[in-house]
């Protein structure tokens, strides 16, 4: 157990629908990152939050949005889903700030299948 | 989005063989990291490198931070069945002290398969 909790583990939904993926970071971590991994692909950065504020944005579609709540958990909202959105979505967390050592800790991911 | 160039894309080896993979970038990074991903799981950090030229070991794994800060390599000695998986390099830049670390930029991955 990495300490980063993602729910649900699997999600199957139809095109056009909206889903919410949830992430609880490791205790004490202030930064949360979302990554998308399509089949046999590397990890594509979507968005980063640090202590409740958006810090960096990657290749995140306008149909996708995220937020980090006061208790530091984060949600990734995916709307108007398309078949191509089927992927593994990973959340990762890190301490953040100048106390950070290196890298982050990943959760075990949410596998989204759009049918 | 940007990804680091990682090679080889896949490797098929016999148990006991040594493995070598590398990662190159057109940009400089302050930190290089190597992760391993098992099927259905998130990547797990293997080794972190903080300084150009640094050589770091973790058991049978050895990684080096290139002097130019634009590359890194990972060696695995005497491979065993549990080494099977996908290995990713990642580069990271530090932001100012009031901010979280900048996102990791990942390599395209090296899939390691051990032939019986």
Task: Give the arrangement of secondary structure elements.
The complex is a heterodimer of chains A (115) and B (116).
Chain A: E1 5-7, E2 10-13, E3 19-24, E4 31-37, E5 44-50, E6 53-57, E7 64-68, E8 74-78, E9 87-94, E10 105-106, E11 110-114
Chain B: E1 5-7, E2 10-14, E3 19-24, E4 31-37, E5 44-49, E6 55-58, E7 61-65, E8 71-76, E9 85-92, E10 105-106, E11 110-115
What can you see in these coordinates?
Chain A is an all-beta fold and 115 residues long. In chain A, 0% of the residues lie in helices and 50% in strands. Chain A contains no helices and 11 strands. Chain A has strands at residues 5-7, 10-13, 19-24, 31-37, 44-50, 53-57, 64-68, 74-78, 87-94, 105-106, 110-114. In chain A, the strands form 2 sheets. In chain A, strands 2, 4, 5, 6, 9, 10 and 11 form a 7-stranded mixed sheet that branches. In chain A, strands 1-3-8-7 form a 4-stranded antiparallel sheet, with no helix packed on it. In chain A, a hairpin with a 2-residue loop joins strand 5 and strand 6. The model of chain A has no long low-confidence stretch (mean pLDDT 91). Chain B has 116 residues and is mainly β. Chain B has no helices and 11 strands. Chain B has strands spanning 5-7, 10-14, 19-24, 31-37, 44-49, 55-58, 61-65, 71-76, 85-92, 105-106, 110-115. In chain B, strands 2, 4, 5, 9, 10 and 11 form a 6-stranded mixed sheet that branches. In chain B, strands 1-3-8-7-6 form a 5-stranded antiparallel sheet, with no helix packed on it. Chain B is globular and about 45 Å long. Chain B starts with a strand and ends with a strand. In chain B, 36% of the residues are buried. The mean pLDDT of chain B is 89. Chain A binds chain B through residues 2, 4, 30-31, 33, 35, 41-45, 48, 50-51, 55-56, 58-59, 90, 92, 94, 96-98, 100-109, 111, and chain B through 1, 3, 31, 33, 35, 40-45, 48, 50, 88, 90, 92, 97-109.
